[in-house]
Each structure stands twice: as C-alpha cells, then as structure tokens.
Specification:
extended; mainly alpha
C-alpha cells in the first residue's frame, strides 16, 4: 500500500499526493537546462526535434561530450557560455521528448537476447571493483 504524503484531509491534497511531484526537480537544474534549450532554440529553432526526427546517438554523443567537458573541469560551453550540465540535461530532455512523441530515430546498437547484458556486465565489474577494494586480485572474465 502506498502511503499518502498528504498532511491534511483535503481531497485535493490527497489526490495530488498520488501524482508525480514535479517540484522534486531542483530549480537550479531546471534553470541551467532552460538556458541550454534557449541556446538551442536560437541555433536550430524551438522544439526542432518535433519538426524533424532526430537520431538518438547524436544526442547521446552530445550529452557525453558535455559531461566529459564538465568532468575535466570546464564549467560552461565556449560557444554559448551555458553550463555543461545544463547542456547534458537538455540533450536528455530532447531524447525523452522525441521518443515520447514518436520522433526519435532509435539508432542504438541492436541487442540480441534482451537488454540486460549491460546490467550483467556492470554487476560483474562491480564485483571486481569490490574485490579490488578489499585487496583481492581477480581476473575480469567475459560472459556472465
């Protein structure tokens, strides 16, 4: 049973407490994402991914570039001056929106036998990392 987060018996509070809480997203993150989307609006037009289909991997690559730039110590993009993390969030927002509206060209690699391979690999590698952390030497093996 889901416990209500409503603190009163007001019917609107009770109903509203069962819905997705959009206020759970920090305003600072939304603001940086909005700046990146505004920059994209200026360059390509607002909601351009709804006018013409977009390739998933283009936005995944852009997101990774922005994350890597930020990880390497660069805060803002040199062309727009917008925070790299805002750009990364904007890329993900476009992917979600384009997929939801049926305008995403899904050019992800083909996965045969189900999509749980990555999770299995990560579980194996996490085990290796935990053993390494505990001082145990272990060989990383494939398949499993």
């Amino acid at each position: 049973m889901v416990k209500s987060k409503a603190t009163s018996q007001n019917p609107k509070d009770i109903t509203g407490s069962k819905k997705v809480s959009l206020s759970a997203v920090p305003a600072v993150a939304i603001a940086h994402e909005a700046c990146a989307l505004m920059d994209g609006n200026d360059k390509y037009g607002p909601y351009n991914w709804r006018d013409k289909a977009v390739s998933a991997r283009i936005y995944v690559d852009a997101c990774k570039r922005h994350l890597d730039a930020w990880l390497e110590g660069e805060e803002a993009s040199s062309d727009a001056g917008v925070h790299h993390l805002g750009h990364a969030r904007a890329c993900l927002a476009i992917l979600l929106d384009a997929q939801e509206y049926g305008n995403l060209i899904d050019d992800r690699p083909i996965i045969e036998g189900g999509g749980d391979t990555f999770q299995r690999v990560m579980n194996r590698l996490n085990g290796w990392a935990a053993d390494r952390s505990a001082g145990k030497k272990k060989i990383i093996r494939g398949k499993g």
